[in-house]
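Hey all, sorry for the wall of text incoming. These are the two entities for the joint prediction.
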Amino acid sequence: MRTYDGEELNVTRASRPCAWLGALRIVAPRLPRHQHGRDARVTYTCMAKAFACILALLLIAAAPAPAVKSLVIYAGGDGASTLHLHGEAARQQLAITGIYDSGAQRDLTHVAKYHCDSPVIKVDRDGLVTALKNGSATISIRVSDAGDASAIASQSLSVTVDRVGETIPINFPNQVVPIFTKLGCNAGGCHGKLSGQNGFRLSLLGFEPAEDYEHLVKEARGRRLFPAAPERSLLLLKATAALPHGGGKRLNIDSDEYRLLVRWISQGIPFGSPADPSVKSIDVFPAARIMERGGRQQLIVTARYTDGSTEDVTRQALYEANEKEMAAAGEGGVVSVNQQPGDVAVMVRYQGMVATFRATLPLGAPMGTLPPARNFIDDLVFKKLKQIGMPPSGVCSDQTFLRRVTLDVAGRMPSEKEMADFLADKDSGRRDKCIDRLLASNDYADFFANTWSALLRNRRARPTYAAGTYAFHDWIRDSLLTNKPYDQFVREIISASGDIADNPAVGWYREVKDPNQQLEDVAQLFMGMRIHCAQCHHHPFEKWSQQDYYSFSAFFSREGRKANNETGQEIVYHQRGIPSAVNPKNHQSVKPAGPGSAPLDLPPDVDPRQALASWMTARENPFFARSLVNRYWKHFLGRGIVEPEDDLRETNPPTNPELLDALSRYFAGSGYDLKALVRTICQSTTYQLDATPNQYNGIDRQNFSRYYPKRLEAEVLLDAVDHLTGVPTRFEGMPAGTRAVQLPDNSFNSSVYFLTVFGRPDSSSACECERSDAPNLAQCLHLLNAQGIQQKLASPGGRAARLAADTQQPDDVHLRGLYHLAYTREPDISELAAAKGYIEQALSKSKDKDKAATRKRAYEDILWALINSKEFSFNH
Amino acid sequence: MLRIDGSRARFCDGVSRRNFLKIGALGIAGLSMPQILRAEAAAGVSNPHKAVIMIFLPGGPAHMDLFDLKPEAPSEVRGEFRPIKTNVAGMEICELMPMLAKRADRYALIRSMVNCSGDHDAFQCLTGRLKRNMPPGGWPSLGSYVAKVQGPLNKAIPPFVGLSPKMGHMEWADAGQPGYLGIPYAPFKPSGEGKDDMVLHDVTLDRLADRRALLQSLDRFRRDVDSSGMMEGLDAFDQQAMGMLTSSKLADALDLSKEDPRVVERYGKGSPANRDDGGPRLTSNFLVARRLVEAGSRCVTLAFSRWDHHGRNFPQLREDIPLLDQGLSALLDDLRDRGLEKDVSVIVWGEFGRSPAINKDGGRDHWPKVSCALMAGGGMKTGQVIGRTDRLASEATDRPVEFGEVFATLYANLGIDIAKTTLPDLSGRPQYLVDGFQPIRELV
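and here's what came out:
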């Protein structure tokens, strides 16, 4: 039995990792575990920026370390006090939790010292117990304070071992297949792809053990497995790279996996009996933990079998963090987290089952005085901020609010008059009035129709589609303008029948023809569910199977199409009949069913798409409202509560679950009132927080402690440039004065280079991600130097020419007007001086006869600088 | 003197671009770019990176007239050209390529490219994929994948550059689409749609400098409000763009006047004019490609001339093959001389082969059954012929090679592990870069 001295402890102690816990306790009393546990997930991409902030925060962590009060041992399964190991090489990972004076819990598995009183078992320094002989033993576990080297907490665990020496038949699906998954043999890039790899095929991620068994045992003239001399089996020779292997060395000869494979082969390659238990579920310990930044946590994954038995599969399971900048989950189930505060989730996968560990990394900063909460959004956002100790920024100024909300609700910059009126309004409810005014405007409908039109694939795939795309766009716009309830809006789309001229809602069906594509789009767009994996195999990250997929597809099985000879358009209609689809895995016919719901028996006369709409839009549907509120939340706040916004799954938890639940409830309760949702979000203090970070929250990217600036979309930016220069862009075939956000379909993207280069989506998918806000060189070059932009700046009828010619007013007035238009604020004195100085300097260098032209050019240059400034091209 | 003529026609012409850049190279006080310079220093020649240069031969080059000659075939098939020996025993190529014949040990020929889609475009050569069953957003091209997976080597040089200008047949001018990866991974096209943006319009460099100074004094927006890194990225691109308009690494890479005139000479003159509705016959673009990868690009695509000879096949080939011979030989020498041979892979190919039978107009028609490719550099085992066609060059009889295998090879050369690398498409499905193909074992 090896023991370890206190060196590791010294390291831990020196960094005083748990010091903040004491501080935290004062400001953020711990919540019951199930509550804080569900808040898990963060995003951070820019550590460098956060550096200064972290330095400041180190001060927070300077309190003295609290002492460990007691230890709690978790030895798998149901947490029984005695550990029972059965059979040779049976293993159990231990997790040692220290309970501190403060009540805080911290993983000490890799800090504790293990001592065992008997050679029945061995325990390694990481707390892995392995059975050696039959018998019983006691493990004593100590955590000592390195300062005085005396034990400050200890605990012991009884262990019994039996059945060593017995031959326990190995079960292929339960024990061998997980090895292939863990080693990556059956990954999609290797033997798991449909065509296999170099003649050897395994089912993807081991979802079809029977097929795997056939391929291993019966193919390649039986060379893959060789019971007479297991070590000579091709499987082992290749995997250990004793023979050349394209995938390299995957397996060590001295590993447990290798020994298990040898035992399996020498047992005569058993498959296992049909009566053998199979994995029913997995769970992970702990399910959630408040961790210190930079800390580690040992996870223990327990597989539960159909016969009620459990097994430690910590070392066989696969781990993946949802925010890889925040946490890494390595071999042996150890999660290491970085310095960024917030939430992160680690997905655990084993044998098609998933579980999630959620870590919350508090910042522990003093909260100061919170801005006033205006509605339930603020209650829940502030609750979370208090929990992690992240003080929010203050409320933004009226000017900032006006620009922000006008861009977010109406997709345009505020006009000078709007700004003047808004600032002149002394009513304390002026912000709410402003939101209502914008929601009632046509611009709101234009802007959101632009977004929905792309998601609903309103594509001019052929020139003859134009009438249809215009009609569908109009329909979407009218629906938004009249505030058609969202459930009705969706129902009208997915159950649409008829000719596009009579029923424009059929436009989605015109572009999305394949039933699989239809169900995948509906799942992703309206339910935030990415189910397409289950078309060919069990979803690797979710519970959805091919049965679920094809049951869902059966809803679309009675959709028929025929030509309308009069209009040349297609007519979509309901073909009378019993809806069904075939699950290709077992070739059985399946009835329509929503994922996770019971199959429906629908009579031949009922359009199953109506049944789908009813199922989906029901109040109790767990996906419908959540998906929409998360999508809209991201539109306004810059980041989804779940990110990406259309990937809502158990293994990708929301950063603020209570907020997502509350918003969903509110939205469903309002009768799916989109304008009410927008109003509620925009009225919240959370939405109206300043973007400028305070001392602590500069690195926040998931807790909404400040407003995250957003780049203007291609259309909005083009309109803003047009608005500022006073020279509108002409769009072919559209009436003069049409703005880019009003364009009905994707056909303008290729003819207007500005829209191409800034990435207006091509309506080719149901994913918002088709629009990317990542910058590229061509965009910057275009804004800096495009001929089209220069023409707008220099246009004789443009703003620069008008302002330069108007010498009645002083330059101050003109310049302030430009600041109103571009930034919705007053220039400060130095800005005004810089701009005025620019004009004066230009004039001083020019001859008298050139003064007018010089003035105009100076104004062009000022407009150019405004357009190219970040304050202009961001909503902040 | 500083007034720059930015007309498209002039700019197509390498000479006027050089002039424009020369003016830019005068530089302007106050426009120094320390960040970019630091990036340049960090990415100096001591830090080699892997790259791909793809030379696309639009229209489908006649494989039996370039690299797979059939002197024993009947006269209506074999054509006018005779094979010549190369410096690799048993490897023969067209007599119009004496320079490449002396360098056969430095490239490999694939004579058995199969499963061409038959589409008259660059899609398959750029993606290695067929168009059916495309994921939403479409398949990304090689350069977009590389830009996404490996990112820019430095902020001063785009990782993916497409040199093809506009053409009559626009499907050949495709430099590579970003597909589901999205617009940030589109190729930077100094000669494509954004070309005009590289030329100052009615704005002198002095005025640009004034504007820049004004922008610096007015743009005081606090960058720390954005923790996503996006604003930082935009600033870097802004600087790069300004640099291009004045003087910078990218402009330098595109500027052949910065090259040793003897090297320029070796690549040959060619002609900037497009051949009919195809690409320009600019062998100097091969040199630009080399300069770009040397400066930090990871993938450069370009289209060379037009090879769709349904009529007058032989006279047109007599004009273009010697150009290709010279340009490609110069590129191979250059890569060797500059120590880039192991790091830079070169692929030369077209969308399909041409019919063995010569038609009544003295041309050859489309032949998707088989085509050829030349691969060089990238640390590959060169000096060999892979695959074989029948006696009429009409079909692969030995070692058929799929486009996907070539892509698997190129990714391997770039150091991308295709067995492990996946990227989510627009529906979130993880997609591999290549499905079902391995690197060509003879080459790697």
